[in-house]
Amino acid sequence: MFNYFDDLATRQLSGATLTRHEALAILESTDEQLLEVVAAAARLRRTHFSNTVKVNYLVNLKSGLCPEDCTYCSQRLGSAAQILKYTWLKPEDAVAQAATGIRAGASRVCMVASGKGPTDRDVDRVAGMVTELKDQHPDVEVCACLGILKEGQAGRLKAAGVDAYNHNLNTSESMYAEICSTHEFSDRVQTVEHAKAAGLSPCSGIIVGMGESHEDLIDAVFALRELGSDSIPVNFLMPFDGTPLEGTWLLRPAACMRVLALVRFACPSTELRMAGGREMHLRTLQPLALHVANSLFLGDYLTSEGQAGQADLAMIADNGFVVLGSPEAATQQGCGSQSSGGCGCHGTHDAETSSGANPTIRRRGAGTQLAPNA
Ligand code: SF4
């Protein structure tokens, strides 16, 4: 029987470019079609990334106190969100924080600082941290996220050993003025281009759930495709109390899945990260999302807590995926799984069996005086 999304995946695998019409079909697909959409997107994901999951770890080098007014951000000017506020971490503390994530399996550390953009002194400060981090962990990838870059700053970061630069487009160009008045969409595009020109791997993504239309989403994702982003973090709005988007709850888990699928179809071989807000918006569909996205942040976000890092790792293993860079992933590379799109090493990387904790005896509901569990 003809399956539109499977056929679309076949065409993407043959090198077709996703059209607006097809993008809209993904976003407008029904809940009944969700598994077809996911299965088709999963073919693309498996072809390009096998069963590996890239684990990234965030270190917030400077929190809050930003002069910009991005409406979605808890660190914005005038934010009343009760977040941690601090100025630059000491280099040794930044390196120690990063090392924790690396020990847990992160192959990329994202070093982030709030603010419109760095001064040259800030760039030197981050460069020093990166040099120290790379001395201790030469294999780790470092992504810097410091805001809008001025001429020459991307090159200095590159020279210090930074591998990638993150600057999200966040939404469509036509919607940008609704979410920020202190800088423009073009400033963001320009910074990604500066980073790219300096040889840094461009990382740029979106935030979903700010009231954007399907057309806005498609515009944003196609802009990222045009920009050549090497990794695309898809964030789901976390509407912090004390920010203008407080109380904005517009997302359903299935809709979040469709956005991830849209990105996968539009940019099949690009790293796709299920980023901030995945726990609260994908909810019980998080494991399903691993079949579309091939990357996540481990543990906590910049100003909010994520689920336990160990729960992230268990979710990866329980669903038959392996952490990129782990011994399990290396074993599979030897068997050709990267090229075949599936691993034949059955049983070598299974999740642990359940740990043997005894069932908890029911002492509530029927047969007791206590309320049932419902
Ligand atoms: S520039 Fe960055 S830190 Fe500042 S308000 Fe915007 S998103 Fe938040």
UniProtKB/TrEMBL annotation:
The keyword Methyltransferase does not apply. CDD domains: Radical_SAM (cd01335). One of its GO terms (biological process) is biotin biosynthetic process. Binds 1 [2Fe-2S] cluster. The cluster is coordinated with 3 cysteines and 1 arginine. Its EC number is 2.8.1.6. GO terms for molecular function: 2 iron, 2 sulfur cluster binding; 4 iron, 4 sulfur cluster binding; biotin synthase activity; iron ion binding. It catalyses: (4R,5S)-dethiobiotin + (sulfur carrier)-SH + 2 reduced [2Fe-2S]-[ferredoxin] + 2 S-adenosyl-L-methionine = (sulfur carrier)-H + biotin + 2 5'-deoxyadenosine + 2 L-methionine + 2 oxidized [2Fe-2S]-[ferredoxin]. Keywords: 2Fe-2S, 4Fe-4S, Biotin biosynthesis, Iron, Iron-sulfur, Metal-binding, S-adenosyl-L-methionine, Transferase. PROSITE patterns: RADICAL_SAM. [4Fe-4S] cluster binds at residues 66, 70, 73. Its cofactor is [2Fe-2S] cluster; [4Fe-4S] cluster. Pathway: Cofactor biosynthesis; biotin biosynthesis; biotin from 7,8-diaminononanoate: step 2/2. The keyword Iron applies. Residues 51-278 form the Radical SAM core domain. SMART domains: BATS, Elp3. Pfam families: BATS, Radical_SAM. It comes from the Bacteria. [2Fe-2S] cluster binds at residues 110, 143, 203, 273. HAMAP family: BioB. Homodimer. Belongs to the radical SAM superfamily. Biotin synthase family. Catalyzes the conversion of dethiobiotin (DTB) to biotin by the insertion of a sulfur atom into dethiobiotin via a radical-based mechanism. This is Biotin synthase. It comes from Arthrobacter psychrochitiniphilus. The gene is bioB.
